UniProtKB/TrEMBL annotation:
PANTHER family: MONOACYL PHOSPHATIDYLINOSITOL TETRAMANNOSIDE-BINDING PROTEIN LPQW-RELATED, PERIPLASMIC BINDING COMPONENT OF ABC TRANSPORTER. Gene3D superfamilies: Dipeptide-binding Protein, Domain 3, Periplasmic binding protein-like II. One of its GO terms (molecular function) is peptide transmembrane transporter activity. It comes from Streptomyces griseoflavus Tu4000. Pfam families: SBP_bac_5. This is Solute-binding protein family 5 domain-containing protein. One of its GO terms (cellular component) is periplasmic space. One of its GO terms (biological process) is peptide transport. Residues 85-414 form the Solute-binding protein family domain.
């Protein structure tokens, strides 16, 4: 997720929201009695303009993914703790060497009545892996030898891997790894999936309407229809929600949530710990090629002040490790606190008493510019001069993050294993901290070759202890992801981080 650091919203304009005013109720979106059938829910997301597509393999923005998961299924998806949960794959089983995995599909059908088969799975994965296309999940599927993999029955197949991969179910759950019917190519006029809703209409950059699929393998949705609308500005989404034009507003900022949380007009749902917030130190260039300087910066940060100031308190403090609360997280390490005396001592040892460094930031993500200013003031107390440089939204993820020495950084939810493999191995394509250590790579390979989960967790903990001691990510917090709902909306999951299975699960939502 390098270009946006998240499935970040883009687009300059705001499109008008269609629809009639909605009713009001008395409960928030997290519960509310027995589910009721019927009705259309209107959900507003930031979108991608006229270039939007319903091709699930091109899903990139939050709006794309929400539409894709309504129409399509994956073999697996991530639970709230970011462990892989079976979806179209009813079960999976590896061989002893962990380089072959047998998959059994559940009985499911596409919207046109055809059964989902192993041939559909192989077609989908081979389409994603097409070297001529830039599909999102291509890198995630790289461990699979798709030429050697084969169907062993109508609902069974064997994946042959290029190397042992203990966390192979994470590959099945990869972002964008949706299953489409064999031979499917066009997706914007009448796409056919196996998801809980079937296609009705689509106008890129404006609206998509999907209707309940009664034969969905997990049970028909409560809603008759869901309509996805585009509103790129946060102010447009909250105003449409307050005005009854929509029932679900994705991605509200903390200030907005605080202003409306206790009014009773709308419900506010906080998805805790959805977004890692960090400063990225380049470990391959001065001054951060010296681990003593990195340790000093860990001790300069007042994490509580950063969460309160940059996130308006809508989050929790970090401990310089990704994935707080996720499967394999090393939660037993001491919570790091500000220690300016120790930070000064480390800088003296490194010969960097009068250190000056540029911190690159941008309004590309909520809290970035605020965090940079707060950290500048914290560093000054340790004798470090931090010059804040604010760059363009358009080039931040593609250029500024690569070229800077110290940069603001954030990430959405993914398994800790994926964070390690995608960002912290020598050959990782999104290695923002330039962390390159062969012994660290060897630990990852050891973990992936370890069949026993307890033993594998112990290896992941060793890797995290190393990062805690001298890594390049100063992870100061985890921001809430905030959603607004009409009071009539029930069944919205309040524990699933953005990008996980139960986020934007409109088949589980109903209107009271």
């Amino acid at each position: 997720m390098r270009r946006r650091g998240f499935l970040a919203a883009t687009g300059a304009g705001t499109l008008a929201l269609a629809g009639c005013g909605g009713g009001s109720g008395s409960d928030d979106g997290g519960g509310g009695g027995s589910p009721k059938k019927g009705g259309r829910l209107r959900a507003a997301f930031a979108g991608g303009g006229a270039s939007e597509t319903l091709d699930p393999h091109l899903a990139n923005l939050f709006a794309d993914v929400a539409r894709a998961k309504a129409l399509f299924d994956k073999l697996a998806d991530y639970g709230a703790d970011l462990s892989a949960r079976p979806r179209l794959a009813e079960k999976w089983e590896p061989n002893k060497a962990l380089d072959r995995w047998r998959i059994t599909l559940r009985e499911a059908t596409f919207h046109d009545g055809r059964p989902v088969t192993a041939r559909d799975v192989l077609y989908s994965y081979r389409r994603i892996a097409d070297p001529k296309r830039a599909f999102r999940a291509k890198a995630s599927l790289e461990p699979i030898d798709l030429d050697a993999s084969r169907a062993t029955g109508a609902r069974s197949l064997e994946f042959v891997l290029k190397r042992p991969t203990a966390e192979f179910p994470n590959v099945l759950a990869a972002f964008g790894a949706y299953i489409v019917p064999e031979g499917a190519t066009g997706f914007d006029t009448a796409p056919v999936g196996s998801g809980p809703f079937r296609f009705v209409s689509f106008t890129p950059g404006r609206s998509a309407v999907f209707r309940r699929y009664d034969d969905y393998w997990e049970g028909a949705p409560h809603l008759d229809e869901v309509e996805f609308l585009v509103a790129n500005e946060e102010s447009a989404r909250i105003n449409a929600l307050l005005g009854g034009q929509i029932e679900y507003a994705h991605e509200l900022n903390p200030t907005t949530a605080r202003a409306h949380e206790n009014e009773g007009r709308i419900g506010i749902v906080r998805l805790r710990g959805s977004a890692m917030q960090a400063f990225c130190m380049k470990t391959d260039r001065p001054p951060f090629d010296d681990p003593r300087v990195r340790r000093a910066f860990f001790l300069i940060a007042d994490r509580r002040e950063l969460v309160e100031g940059a996130l308006s308190g809508a989050g929790e403090v970090g401990n310089d490790l990704f994935g707080k609360g996720y499967e394999y997280y090393a939660g037993g390490l001491p919570q790091r606190e500000q220690d300016l005396g120790r930070a000064r001592a480390l800088l003296r040892q490194a010969g960097a008493e009068d250190l000056k460094v540029t911190l690159d930031t941008s309004p590309v993500a909520a809290g970035f510019t605020e965090a940079a200013g707060i950290f500048r003031d914290q560093a000054k107390k340790a004798g470090v001069t931090v010059e804040v440089r604010t760059g363009s939204k358009d080039s931040y993820w593609s250029d500024i993050l690569d070229n800077g020495t110290l940069c603001c950084y954030r990430s959405g939810a993914m398994p800790i294993e994926a964070h390690l493999s995608q960002r912290l191995l020598t050959d990782s394509t999104t290695n923002a901290t330039r962390w390159r250590h062969k012994d660290f790579d060897a630990l990852y390979q050891q973990a992936q070759s370890t069949r026993d989960k307890t033993e594998r967790a112990a290896v992941y903990e060793r890797m995290q202890r190393r990062l805690y001691a001298e890594g390049g990510f100063l992870i100061w917090g985890f921001a809430d992801w905030i959603i607004g709902t009409a009071r009539t909306v029930k069944g919205v999951d309040t524990k699933a981080p953005a990008n996980t299975l139960d986020w934007a699960r409109f088949d589980k939502v109903w209107l009271a």
